[in-house]
Amino acid sequence: MRYDKPIRGSADYLEGGAPNLVGFAGLEAGLAAIQQIGRVRIFSHVQIYLDALEAGLRDRGFTSLRAPDIARRSGILSVECPAGVTAADTAAALRKRGVSVTTPDGALRFSPHWPNAHREVPRVLDTLDEALREVRGERAPTLVDIARARGLLPDAVDDVEETSNDSE
């Protein structure tokens, strides 16, 4: 450091620091993995994942903002939330449950990549159902509720379940 020079009044001079060698090594390893798998395979994998996720989101009242033309698609799925539910509240409830999403421009955005397995989509949708119940202030269904909805309980069991809940 030189003390014989005046302190500059502007940032018109920059000095480089140490290069980020660890970052460069990580970048090289990441790019090597992507090249080995292949961009086309990665894109296809992500689109299959998003196709399943998009269908589940639509079933739950979300509106997809994804391009219908596959040539115009990316690895991101943005959706508008159903009436009475905000993207910010839904995102916060999802994050509490370990699902990473963002909310640019008021849309709920999912951006999976090649490490995300297709088999996790049903779990993401189940987690979304929990998050929506929280946002809407609804209670979680019990096993009896689920069995009843699937027509697995005879009427007599319904009566017993309702009676046992009254005594708790």
- Which fold does the CATH topology of one domain refer to? Aspartate Aminotransferase, domain 1
The largest pleated sheet is described as: 3 strands, antiparallel
CATH 2nd-level architecture of one domain? Alpha-Beta Complex
Distance between the termini: 75 Å
Number of strands: 3
Q: Classify the beta-strand content into a percent band.
A: 5-15%
Helix count, per DSSP? 6
Adjacency order of strands in the biggest sheet: 1-2-3
Mean pLDDT: 89
SSE diagram, text form:
Blueprint lengths: L20 H17 L1 H21 L3 E2 L12 E4 L6 H10 L11 E3 L10 H16 L6 H7 L5 H12 L2
Antiparallel strand pairs: 1-2, 2-3
Q: What report would you give on this structure?
A:
By secondary structure, the chain is mainly alpha-helical. It has a domain of 106 residues: Aspartate Aminotransferase, domain 1, CATH 3.90.1150. 14% of the residues are buried.
Outline:
By secondary structure, this protein is mainly α. It has six helices and three strands, in the order ααββαβααα. The mean pLDDT is 89.
